[in-house]
Design goal:
The protein has one domain. It is 45% helix and 0% strand. It is built from 2 helices and no strands. The longest helix is centred in the N-terminal third of the chain and has 11 residues. The radius of gyration is 13 Å and the shape is elongated. It starts with a helix and ends in a 6-residue tail after the last helix.
């Protein structure tokens, strides 16, 4: 599923949900925390 198809799906069914595209990998907890500027587990 592409990001565009996810955006279209959510726009039609859950318009209050925002899609966030990260500038780097969020494959692990540590990576995701670093991308979002929070501590792992937060």
């Amino acid at each position: 599923m592409s990001a565009q198809s996810v955006r279209a799906f959510l726009a039609a069914r859950a318009p209050d949900i925002a899609v966030i595209e990260a500038h780097a990998s969020t494959a692990t907890v540590a990576d995701a925390a670093a991308v979002h500027g929070v501590a792992p587990g937060q």
